[in-house]
From TrEMBL:
<dbReference type="InterPro" id="IPR014036">
    <property type="entry name" value="DeoR-like_C"/>
</dbReference>
<dbReference type="InterPro" id="IPR036390">
    <property type="entry name" value="WH_DNA-bd_sf"/>
</dbReference>
<dbReference type="GO" id="GO:0003700">
    <property type="term" value="F:DNA-binding transcription factor activity"/>
</dbReference>
<dbReference type="GO" id="GO:0003677">
    <property type="term" value="F:DNA binding"/>
</dbReference>
<dbReference type="Pfam" id="PF00455">
    <property type="entry name" value="DeoRC"/>
</dbReference>
<dbReference type="InterPro" id="IPR018356">
    <property type="entry name" value="Tscrpt_reg_HTH_DeoR_CS"/>
</dbReference>
<keyword id="KW-0805">Transcription regulation</keyword>
<feature type="domain" description="HTH deoR-type">
    <location>
        <begin position="1"/>
        <end position="56"/>
    </location>
</feature>
<keyword id="KW-0238">DNA-binding</keyword>
<dbReference type="InterPro" id="IPR037171">
    <property type="entry name" value="NagB/RpiA_transferase-like"/>
</dbReference>
<protein>
    <submittedName>
        <fullName>Transcriptional regulator, DeoR family</fullName>
    </submittedName>
</protein>
<keyword id="KW-0804">Transcription</keyword>
<dbReference type="InterPro" id="IPR036388">
    <property type="entry name" value="WH-like_DNA-bd_sf"/>
</dbReference>
<dbReference type="InterPro" id="IPR050313">
    <property type="entry name" value="Carb_Metab_HTH_regulators"/>
</dbReference>
<dbReference type="Pfam" id="PF08220">
    <property type="entry name" value="HTH_DeoR"/>
</dbReference>
<dbReference type="InterPro" id="IPR001034">
    <property type="entry name" value="DeoR_HTH"/>
</dbReference>
Length: 248
């Protein structure tokens, strides 16, 4: 994927639907070139083409998700890194913001990282950071492991903090995930009783996915951006969950 296609994908993911003409003006190329790029990106399952426009997909591909709100996710990751001390052992779950956090930590802190994400492990292969990758059933699209073996591995390792991604939050459901098996991995982490921190941009608030992340009482903190509405801030407070708002 070249830089122009990355820009296109970020615009599609940010806007959810955008016309070919708008993409052409933003990228500074012809509509013919944009259509060629969209054809390629659709073949790779990064987006969906409709007449005259491109639509965002709910994709498990980490590269695709990374392009959505990339600059904001970078800021969230940089802030989250300040919450970790040298010498700590940290569990980092899968997801784009968590991948940025892992890279930031590996380059600037002396920590041990435990992860279920092969994407994250590969991202850190040129760093000096010690990385422990847990076993399990490999999900090729999300590049993460899940299942009973993963749950057993989580029970056998020790860490100071855990950073978790989410796909949704609503007052009636709490935090939720789209994938049942990955939600089970998160729930295994929550059962450990360590300091659990959710790292997410505020766009996930107001969405409801099928699989609950529980128990809610085991989630101590949310790191998100300053667009989080006052209603959701009050809901988090009522649930006893602290939150840090990072300016865009």
């Amino acid at each position: 994927m070249n830089s122009r296609q990355q820009t296109i994908l970020q615009l599609v993911n940010d806007r959810r639907r955008i016309s070919v003409g708008e993409l052409a003006r933003a990228a500074g190329v012809s509509e013919v070139t944009i259509r060629q790029d969209l054809t390629l990106l659709e073949k790779r399952s990064y987006l969906k083409r409709v007449h005259g426009s491109a639509l965002a997909l709910e994709s498990d591909d980490v590269d695709a998700r990374m392009m959505s709100n990339f600059i904001l996710k970078q800021k969230l990751a940089q802030y989250a890194a300040t919450q970790i001390n040298d010498g700590e052992t940290v569990f980092i779950e899968s997801g784009s913001a968590n991948a940025l956090l892992a890279r930031y930590l590996a380059e600037r802190k002396h920590v041990t990282l435990i992860t279920v994400s092969h994407y994250i492990a590969n991202l850190l292969k040129e760093t000096e950071c010690e990385v422990i990758v847990l076993g399990g059933i490999y999900q090729k699209k999300s590049e993460t492991v899940v299942g009973p073996l993963t749950r057993m591995c989580i029970q056998q390792v020790h860490f100071n903090k855990a950073f978790i991604g989410i796909d949704g939050y609503h007052a009636e459901t709490g935090f939720t995930g789209r994938d049942m098996m990955r939600a089970d991995v998160v729930n295994a982490v929550l059962e450990k009783g360590v300091e659990n921190i959710i790292l997410t941009d505020s766009s996930k608030f107001g969405q409801i996915q099928a699989n609950p992340l529980r128990p809610l009482a085991k989630i101590g903190r949310v790191i998100t951006d300053s667009r989080l509405s006052l209603d959701y801030q009050h809901q988090l407070k009522r649930s006893g969950i602290a939150f840090d708002l990072v300016n865009e």
